[in-house]
Write a structure and sequence with these properties.
By secondary structure, the chain is of the alpha/beta class. The protein has one domain: Spore Coat Polysaccharide Biosynthesis Protein SpsA, Chain A (Alpha-Beta Complex). The protein contains eight helices and seven strands; from the N terminus they run βαβαβαβαβαβααβα. A seven-stranded mixed β-sheet has the order 3-2-1-4-6-5-7, sandwiched between helices. Helix 2 links the parallel strand 2 and strand 3. It starts with 6 loop residues before the first strand and ends in a 10-residue tail after the last helix. Pfam families: Glycos_transf_2.
Length: 241
């Protein structure tokens, strides 16, 4: 691709060899003919055939670009490096496991196009989650605590499908697991956010990279850090004299 795309779809992956081709196909079906776009996959040093499958797809998918980590670094770093590599002014993110539906990306774009310019993040809201009962319960509990502490008015921050402005995202403070706190961080920066109901699907292949315990232990520490960042925020407009 030589022209600058309007949209970059960033997909972080780790050991998702059987989900790569179906998800790329769905992204193409959702976006071809609707806008100029690119797909940026970030391979977090997978141990399976994920990278090989992506290389094969590049031969027939001109929109597809592939970035590979030299060290396994986690989802937040993969998203950030994908956004840094992206050329579009707006970014759509998807989890690489196929549970997010690419057909929802046009819905997020339509929501953006009818909303004022002060909204820089459109976050997916999984109103009918297809996870296990224990994971849904843990997520509900975590969302309630997060909402109480951060007051971000967001019902679901863990959903992988989001649409946001690239420049606004790269201006946010970076830390591991920051992708779970994007609404609060965007609001801290002075921008507005909107939650949009989206589809959610069962994982078709592979296994989850998280469990409820490690999510909870990391989440408590991160919540305290984000709450501290919010209290230390200072914003003002400027004028040139």
């Amino acid at each position: 691709m030589t022209s600058t795309p309007q949209l970059s779809v960033v997909v972080p992956v780790y050991n998702e060899q059987d989900n790569v081709a179906p998800l790329v196909g769905e992204i193409l079906a959702a976006l071809r003919g609707r806008c100029d776009f690119e797909i940026v996959y970030v391979d977090d040093l997978s141990k399976d055939a994920t990278l090989e499958r992506l290389k094969q797809l590049q031969a027939t998918t001109p929109e597809l670009r592939v970035v590979r980590h030299l060290v396994n670094s986690g989802q937040s770093t993969a998203i950030r490096n994908g956004v840094k590599a992206a050329r579009g002014a707006w970014i759509a993110t998807l989890d690489g496991d196929g549970q997010n539906d690419p057909a929802d990306i046009p819905k997020l774009i339509a929501e953006r196009d009818k909303t004022d310019a002060g909204v820089k993040l459109f976050a997916g809201w999984r109103v009918n989650r297809q996870d296990s009962g224990s994971k849904r319960w843990a997520s509900k509990w975590a969302n309630a605590i997060r909402s109480r502490m951060l007051r971000d008015s967001t019902p679901d921050t863990g959903c992988g499908i989001k649409l946001f402005e690239r420049e606004a995202f790269l201006d946010l403070p970076y830390f591991d697991h920051m992708h779970r706190y994007l609404p609060a961080l965007m609001q801290r920066a002075g921008w507005k956010t909107v939650s949009v109901p989206v589809n959610h699907r069962h994982r078709a292949s592979g296994v989850s990279k998280y469990n409820n315990l490690n999510r909870a232990l990391v989440g408590i520490r991160d919540l305290r850090g984000v709450a501290w960042l919010i209290t230390r925020s200072r914003r003002t407009g400027i004028e040139e004299l």
